[in-house]
Write a structure and sequence with these properties.
Length: about 325
Amino acid sequence: MSFKKEYLILIAVIAVLVLYLTTRSANHEGELAQPQKVESADIKRLVVTDKKNTPLELVKKDDRWVIEPQGYPADSVKVKNMLNAASDLTLTAIVSESGALDRYGLTGDEKITVQAFSDGTPVRSFTVGKAAPTFQHTFVLLEGDPKVYHARGQLKRTFEQSADALRDKTIFDIDQAAITSLTLQKGTRTVTLVKKELPKEAAEASADKPADAENTETPAAAPVFEWQNADSGQAVDQTQVDSLLGDIAHLDADAYMDDSAKEGLGDAQWQVTFKKAEETFSLAVYPKQDDAADKLPATASSTPYAFLLDTPHVENIAKDLDALLGQEEKTQ
C-alpha cells in the first residue's frame, strides 16, 4: 500500500471518529431531560432563601416588583435577570449521582434555594451551589431529583442578593430639559429661578452667525431658553444651573436608611424644589449623623424613605447651589 493511500485512509478514520464523537455528544445532551419550560412573564412571585441573608420574597404588583413584606420597590434590572435565570434554567450535564453535595456548595451556608410561583402555583424550584470550574456554569439541584447538574450561567451571582442590595435606588430619573422652574433654599436664603424662552430677536443676537449669514438661507432656529431670577428677571449663570440640575435630575441613592430614620433627621441643610409641567419634586439634604460618616442623609418627594448620598456628590450640588444663592444676594 502506497504512502498516499495510507495517508488518505488515516484522514478518513479521523473524520469518522470526529463525526462519531460529535454525534455521541449531541445525543447525550439531547437525552438530558430539561426542566419544564416556564415563561418569565408567567412568574408572579419569587422566593430566594440562603443562610447569609434574610429570606427574600419578590411579588409582582401591577407592573412593578416589590420586596415583601415591606413593599419596597425592587431594582427592575436585577429582578429581570433573576426571572430570566429561573425561567430559562438550562441543564448542560450531569455532574454527580452519588448524593455528595458538600463539594458543590449545595449544602449549609453555601446553597441558595429559588422558588418561582405563578398565581400561587409553584412552577420552578431548584437549589444553586458554587460556580463550576468553567466559570460559565453553576452546580444546581432540581427539587425531587438527587442528581447534581451543570446549569448554564453564573446563577449564584444573580440570586445572591440581600433585600437592601435589591432595592430600587433610583430617586429621580427626569428629563432635565423638561424642568421649567427651580427653587433653592438654604438657611434664610431662598431664590426661585424660571426658564424663559428668549424673544426671537434676542435669540438671534445671542447666536453666533457666519460672516455671510445675510446671504445664506437658514432653517428656522430652535427656541432658545434662559434661566432667570423669577423676581428680578435677570439672567443667572446658565452653566451652574445646568450643572446643578444634571446632578439632581438623574439621582440614585447610595443606600437606604432605617424606615424610622426620617423622623429624627432634624432640619435640612438645604433643599431644592423643581417643577416639570404640573409635577413638583424636591430634594433635601441633612447634616451628617456621625462626623466620621462619608455619606449624608437625604429625603426626596419621590420616596417615603430616607436615604444616603455620597459626600462628594452632595458637595458638587451644594457648590452650585451656594453660587446661585450668592448671585441672588448681589441682585438685592
